[in-house]
Write a structure and sequence with these properties.
Shape of chain B: globular
Order of helices and strands of chain A: EEEHEEEEHEEE
Strand content of chain A: 35-45%
Number of helices of chain A: 2
CATH architecture of the largest domain in chain B: 3-Layer(bba) Sandwich
Number of strands of chain A: 10
Distance between the termini of chain B: 69 Å
Helix content of chain A: 10-25%
Oligomer: heterodimer
Number of helices of chain B: 8
CATH class of the largest domain in chain B: Alpha Beta
CATH topology of the largest domain in chain B: FAD/NAD(P)-binding domain
Largest sheet of chain B: 7 strands, mixed
Radius of gyration of chain A: 19 Å
Strand order of the largest sheet of chain A: 8-5-6-10-9
Largest interface: A-B, 28 and 31 residues
Helix content of chain B: 10-25%
Shape of chain A: elongated
Amino acid sequence: MREKTRELTCVVCPMSCRARVVFEGGEVIAVKGVGCPRGEAYARGEVMAPVRDFFTTVRVRGGKFSMLPVRTTMPVPKERVMDIAVELSKITVEAPVKLGQVIMRDILNLNVDVIATRALDVV
Amino acid sequence: MIQRDVDVAVVGGGAAGLAAAIRARREGVEKVLILERGEELGGVLHQCIHTGFGLHYFKENLTGPEYVSRFINIVHELGIEYKVDTMVLKVSSEKRITAINSVDGLMSISAKSIVFAVGCRERTRGSLSIPGTRPAGIFTAGTAQRLMEIEGSMPGRRLMILGSGDVGLIMARRFVMEGAKVEAVLEIMPYPGGLSRNIVQCLDDFNIPLLLGYTVTLIHGKDRLEGVTVAKIDRYRRLMPGTEKFIGCDTLILSVGLIPENELTKDMGVVLDPLIGGPMVNERMETSIEGVFACGNVVHVHDLVDHVTEAGETAGRSAARYVLGALPPFRRRLLVKPGANVRYVVPQIISGKESVSLFFRVKRPARYVTVKAGDEVSEFRQIVRPPELASINLPGGIHGKDGRIVVSVRRRSKS
């Protein structure tokens, strides 16, 4: 197998190191250009299995406002962000809503729940 | 007209005001009243649905609504009085507040102490003087955020974003997630205005181009925006001829900075810092008028809400002590001044007696620098950037030089 290199910007701290991750046969063999162990861990994760915090708003019926902010309980795979957004654009939640209330359990079989990030009273 | 007497009146019920009111009550002040212009407590955090809040204060990664809900719940638990949908019209130098809402009508509230926590507002097209027509479809980033995240309206389908501050970057991602197309983000400076985390996760993740050294030079469209002319800007902020190009779009989002909101404080005679437009404060967050305090984005624009909360707590504690007669007079005064590569420093006045954190913002990004506060403190920093508020801790017993302390950032000297 041939060596491959991917460059990325570390986002762990404001230094914004330019990391070069060298991998061979699907395994990271070296991380260059980062100044600390946290940066190395970030660069490895970002190359092998990048994840993102997920949050959006969903429609709500009968509430004080027409949108309810939600998040996933855990970060999700980066490449599934748009899929989750599309899935949540299909639903309408009924007010009242409690802070932390589960809006959708195990969305797209990703082992994460979608929860409300605020309470929303009825009008 | 309703006449009221309160101990501490807090103007503004966002992150700063909530922290101030809670702290004032916990210090033992009975009559605390929060006056909030919006329809609910919490301010702008309700529309900041993204994560990244509370990492310092709670050691947790929260969304804006989650962060502010914690403080709103404490206000309820402590039974602190508040009035929403209430506009403060005037504050006299004798600390008499004139306010109005549709339930109480006109009110005259006499306060022993006042905390200003009214925040800031966004710069608009008018403050940039962009030439062209005046069509619909030009929004500030915060207004677009409110429309989308609270009111449920999409500002447009094909967008351009001017300014690469964090709000603009965060909105770029949200537009794409909601099915719109973002043509590009333009930044007049040669470096991005937002955190690199947001450049990566809001722009790179969604393949949104960032054009550095560009600005909008002309607005096109009659009823609705049809497009903008963009052009490259040189290092002296001059337009480079021949670089103009037309980009079609139905919406232009402006993320071009925030201005502290100081009509009330100015009218009552509070001395403002001309560098940032907010009230000059000492380390107690006290303004030039005794018993009048200020905290949060009305003083200077913060990038982390955690710091806003801390400033609110300081202001609330000081206001409570003032009311309880436990705040000793502020005697020795040292002026804190910005030096090399420093745009501003807060607080602007310190006693020098006790240890204090000085918050400052640099003018230009720099690596491997020495931050100096007078001759007393000198600290090394790997990097400083204008979007990130920096701080340096001064110990107590500082004397300064000619009544002042200068904070400067210089390339690390070789030794």
